[in-house]
Amino acid sequence: MTDRMTPPPALGCRSAPVLKQRGQREVFCGLTGIIWLHRKMQDAFFLVVGSRTCAHLLQSAAGVMIFAEPRFGTAILEESDLAGLNDAHAELDREVETLLARRPDIRQLFLVGSCPSEVIKLDLSRAAERLTQLYAPKVRVLEYSGSGIETTFTQGEDACLASMVPVLPATQERNLVVVGALPDVVEDQMLSLLADLGVGPVQVLPARTIDADVAVGPNTVFALTQPFLSDTHAALIRRGARHLAAPFPLGEEGTTAWLAAIASEFGVTQDTFDTVTEAPRRRARQAVAQAAEALDGKSVFFFPDSQLEIPLARFLTRECGMRAVEVGSPYIHDEIHGPDLDLLPAGPQISEGQDVDLQLDRCRAARPDLTVCGLGLANPLEAEGLSTKWAIELVFTPVHFYEQAGDLASLFARPLRRKRILNGPALEAAQ
Predict the structure, then answer these.
(1) Domain count, the chain
(2) Are 357 and 313 members of one domain?
(3) Which CATH number belongs to the domain containing residue 48 in this structure?
(4) What torsion, rounded to 10 degrees, do the Cα atoms 186, 139, 222, 195 define?
(5) Are residues 423 and 292 in the same domain?
(6) Residue 63 falls within a domain, yes or no?
(7) Are 71 and 40 in contact (CB under 8 A)?
(8) Both 191 and 125 in a single domain?
(9) Which residues are documented as binding site for [4Fe-4S] cluster?
(10) Coil, helix or strand at residue 112
(11) Which residues fall in the annotated binding site?
C-alpha cells in the first residue's frame, strides 16, 4: 500500500518557520456557512438570533427571492432586547413555537448565535436544552455560534458540525465517517468511489436528513474533506473516533492520497485501488493540464481567509506549475494541515493569522501574478494592477475529487486569462 501516494518533496513546509501575526484582520462573517448548510441538510432550519444586519447579510448572500421558502431565518433582536428590557428567552420561545407550527417538516433546528446575541450574553445553550425537552423527539434543537467577532467565515460550518457530534448515536461497529459538507453531486461521486473500493459502511456528516443514523464509537475512523473543521475533529476524537490524516481531496494528487489513506485502513488491495482510480485519475490529469496552461510558471500569494489555502497551494504548485510566494492561513492545525504541508515544496512564506496592513505591504512588494484574497481586498488590489481570485468562490464552487479537478484549476486560470485579454489591445498599441 505504500506506493499509492506520491512521495513528498525532499524539503516540504511542515517544519518551515511560521510567521505568526496578530493585528487587524480582513474576515467575513461566520453566518455565511448557513448558505451551503441549509441546502445540504434537507430537514434542518437555521434560526439566527441576531440583528436586522444579520438578516440582510443572509438574504443578500443567498440571493433569496421574496416568494422563496428557505430553511433559514432570523429572530430579530430589537433595541429593547439589547437594552435588557425584554425577556429574550421568552421571545425566542415564541418565535420557535411559531416557526415549528408553520413548518412541520423541520426535524433539526439550529439556534445560531451572532455578534449581537453574544454581546448581550444570551445563553443559547440553555435555550436549546429547554426547547429540546419541549419538542423532542420530533425536533432536535442544537445551538452554535456563527459570530464573526473572532472567527473566519468557514468556521460557521465547523461550529455547526461540532454541535452535532455529542448527540450522534453510539456504535461499536467499525465504520467510516466522512466529515464536511459537499455538494450532493460531489458527495455521490465520492461515495461511488468508496463503494467501488469496497470500503464500508460509510456515513457522511452532515447527512442530508436526520434519519441517516450517523453513529460514532471507538471503532469509527473519520476522514475530513474540508481543512477548516478543527472543532469537529476534536469533538470526534473525544467520542473515541480516530482521524485518518491525509492531504485533502483537491486535484488528482490530493484525491488519490486521500483515497489511499482510507484504502490502506480498510485493507484494499493495490490492484483494486488501481482499477478503480485509473480512469478518473487520467481524466483529472488531462483536465488539469489543459486548464493549467495559463498558470504554469506564474506566482501566487494567499491571504488568510477560508483555511483552504494550504491544500490549494499544494495543488497549484505541484499540479499546475505555479510558484507560491506566501501561503497565509487563519489557523494552522498540524494534524489536519500537516500532510498537505509535507507535499508543499519549500520556498513560500507560511503565515498564520493576519496583520492585514503588513501583509498588504508584502504582497505589493512581491507583485505576484495572482493573489487569492477576500472580497474586501480584491477590488483595491485589482485597481493597483494585481490579478485576484475571490477566496469565497472556492467554498461555494464544487472543487473536490477527480471530476472537479479541471474546474478547480480553471478557477485560478480565469483571472489571468481575463487580464491577458484586457491588456491585449494595449500591448498591441505599445508595439
Answers:
(1) 3
(2) yes
(3) 3.40.50.1980
(4) -50
(5) yes
(6) yes
(7) no
(8) no
(9) 29, 54, 115
(10) strand
(11) 29, 54, 115
Say yes or no: 232 and 147 in one domain: no
Any domain includes 114? yes
Q: Determine if the peptide bond prior to 348 is cis (ω within 30°).
A: no
Span 106-145, pLDDT tens digits: 999 999 998 888 877 888 999 999 999 999 899 999 999 9
Domain ranges, residue 396: 18-25+282-430
297: left (phi over 0), alpha (psi -120 to 50) or beta: left
Residues 362 and 321 in one domain: yes
Q: How far apart are CA 393 and CA 209, in angstroms?
A: 26
- What is the pTM assigned to this prediction? 0.91
**Cα separation, 285 vs 89, whole angstroms:** 55
CA–CA gap between residue 188 and residue 27 (Å, rounded): 32
Can you name the residues that pair with 46 across neighbouring β-strands?
72, 110
Q: Is residue 119 located within the same domain as residue 38?
A: yes
Residue 140, φ and ψ in degrees, nearest 5: -100, 125
The per-residue pLDDT for range 6-32, each reduced to its tens digit, is 554 556 899 999 999 887 776 778 888
Q: Which amino acid is at 272?
A: T
The sign of the CA dihedral 418, 423, 425, 431 is negative
In a domain, 274, yes or no: yes
Please name the residue that has the C-alpha cell 447527512. 207
**CA geometry: angle at 150 spanning 388 and 165, to 5°?**
100
Between CA 364 and CA 356 the distance in angstroms is 12
CB 388 within 8 A of CB 364: no
